[in-house]
Write a structure and sequence with these properties.
Layout (H helix, E strand, L loop, with lengths): L2 E9 L2 E10 L2 E5 L3 E5 L3 E7 L2 E6 L2 E6 L3 H10 L4 H5 L7 E4 L4 H10 L3 E3 L6 E7 L8 H6 L2 E12 L7 H7 L6 E7 L4 E7 L6
Parallel strand pairs: 8-9, 8-10, 10-11
Antiparallel strand pairs: 1-2, 1-7, 2-3, 3-4, 5-6, 6-7, 11-13, 12-13
Length: about 200
């Protein structure tokens, strides 16, 4: 999950109380006005006396974050890679099912040689499975048997679709003997939910 804070923001001569959120690789603000600032578009940044100031293609904005200002500045300047957020470590045994993302596959193979595509290899540390509808959720029970006791299944689905949402995956988890532990933005068009075997059953 991202980090969020209630704060005062200033932008374009306006001031608003609201909620700031670091999510994926962007900073979001929702108050009397809304802002979306991709990290890659930031051209200037300063954290001083609890205020984080950002300059990007859309202008300049400041956020009164208190002691979080410097921490957020570091996260914006040095964002974690997608593989780090997904917990892919060197040598991890990874299985890919229904993930049609050449860039992601290339990144995976740079980090680990143990990548299986099209099926779930036994004793996988991580399984990534693409889904587009509720009818695919029963796959989770079988995939549970393929991961290590402390392994995980990442369900990846298209963002912004009312017919198949995060809650559908989360609510189905217990039927497959899984609990959800984390959500990340997989890409601009995909979200991912991490599912694991409950600690008491490992």
């Amino acid at each position: 999950m991202g980090q969020e804070a209630r704060c005062t923001a200033r932008y374009g001569g306006r001031t608003s109380e609201g909620k700031a959120l670091l999510e994926g690789e962007e900073l979001l603000f929702r108050g009397d006005f809304a802002l979306r600032i991709p990290f890659k578009s930031v051209t200037g940044m300063e954290a001083r006396q609890g205020r984080l100031s950002l300059r990007w293609s859309g202008g300049t904005a400041s956020f009164e974050l208190g002691p979080r200002a410097e921490t957020w500045a570091l996260k914006i300047r040095y964002p974690r890679s997608l593989l780090d957020k997904l917990g892919v470590k060197p040598g991890s045994r990874v299985s890919l099912l229904g993930i049609d993302d050449k860039s992601f596959r290339a990144q995976l193979r740079e980090r680990t040689d143990a990548v299986t595509e099209g099926r779930a290899a036994k004793n996988s540390d991580l399984v990534f499975v693409g889904m587009t509808g509720r009818a695919e959720l029963p796959k989770l029970a079988k995939l549970r048997g393929a991961i290590k006791k402390n392994g995980a299944i990442w369900v990846v689905w298209p963002k912004g679709r009312k017919e198949f949402r995060e809650d559908d995956v989360r609510n189905y988890g217990p039927q497959a003997g899984l609990v959800d532990v984390k959500v990340v933005s997989f890409s601009e068009t995909l979200s991912a939910l991490k599912m694991m075997i409950p600690v008491a059953q490992r």
